[in-house]
From TrEMBL:
Residues 159-196 form the Peripheral subunit-binding (PSBD) domain. The keyword Transferase applies. This is Dihydrolipoamide acetyltransferase component of pyruvate dehydrogenase complex. It is an enzyme of class 2 (transferase). GO terms for cellular component: cytoplasm. Residues 3-78 form the Lipoyl-binding domain. Residues 101-147, 197-227 are annotated as: Disordered.
Amino acid sequence: MTEQVFLLPDLGEGLTEAEIVEWRVAVGDTVTVDQSVVEVETAKAVVDVPCPYAGRVVALHGAAGETRPVGQPLITIAPADGEPAGHATYREEERAGSGNVLIGYGTGHGAAGRRRRRPRLSVAPEPAPAPDFAPAPAPAPVAAASGPAAVPGGAVALVISPIVRRLAREHGIDPATLRGSGPGGVVRRADVEAALAGPAPAPRPTPVPDRPDAAPTGGADGPTAAGRVAVPAGEEDLVVPLTGVRKVIADKLSRSRREIPEVTIWVDADATALVETRRAINAATPDAPVSLLALLARICLSGLRRFPQLNARVDTEGQRIVQSRGVHLGIAAQTDRGLVVPVLRDAHLLTTRELAAALAETTAAARAGTLPPARLTGGTFTLNNYGVFGVDGSTPIINHPEAALLGVGRIVDKPWVVDGQLAVRKVTQLSLTFDHRVCDGGVAGGFLRHVADCVEQPALLVANV
């Protein structure tokens, strides 16, 4: 077997590039078929990339933080030391099959029973940062990128990711001062970003003239003249690059605002009966709880069955409106990498309990960054529960190319008139943002009124499911 060059594979959904987040292996390491060799971040998600070749690593193409185009070399593998070309180890592992699910490579068989190399965590001292003019260091595995930082009390703070190390260095943050939130106290990107967002020590003020040609009086520590305002000296603007998921979010929202003539309507609804219904369901079967979000998803599906015009998209090139046969329900989820909308395919075919289980699994995977790109596209209608942020209402932007989005505010106790008497009820605000090209106010209002009626009288759902 000669050297094998593994190219960055097609990661699906039209993605053309990926940023290297962290190498899992180093030059000289031995890898097996389907062993994860690198973690990359695409415009959709963070993905572990398995290698379809077995052997010894002889080259890593690209350093952490570098963007690589699809189809370009990623890693070069040679026969393991001491093994002749075509050694049985490689052939047997290849016959054992590839368990990867990425597009464009792999043997396509099962991958049961094969041991995989685990990344090593080293606590070797962290090397001093290279000067700006020095060439970038060669990419290293987790072991080489890791390092300890002494913290008060004698503990050791570990920084695994080179991205985290670079982010801390660029902003002048000493990892030794951070409390790692990862397993074993590992300092994560979120820890560095939290430190950036926290209060900073007040720098020494510098007098600023009240007109451009005026000169400050006194020394840097001296008094300022009347009419002059002291401002912090040496502060720099925080620059956050629009890359990866954040760039895609920005592009998609901007396109939605440019292309979709959207309208938002809203209504308050008494959710007392819905809360009680959920409590009764979970009391009867506590082993399979149903969330309020699952009940709201069921109500959305009922409304879309009655008003299919909202389960659609506008094909601007073909000058037509396309109504989807099935409902692929998007669920807006806030993650460390920004807002994502994972999709439940054919949600209309799921029972309420199946919806609850799928929602729990999907939102957890989205927050962990483990969803494949295919799970983040293809939605036909979105449900956005912004009430979890403690707000009542919103005019959200439609998830292009969809045509509508239902928003749900927080459920709070409010005075409400019931049968002519004032009472305290569980009230929520519902909003529908829709593309005015696919329907008019009658359809949109009818859908939102149906949703509100089902929230107030969950028994109405029985007639539709």
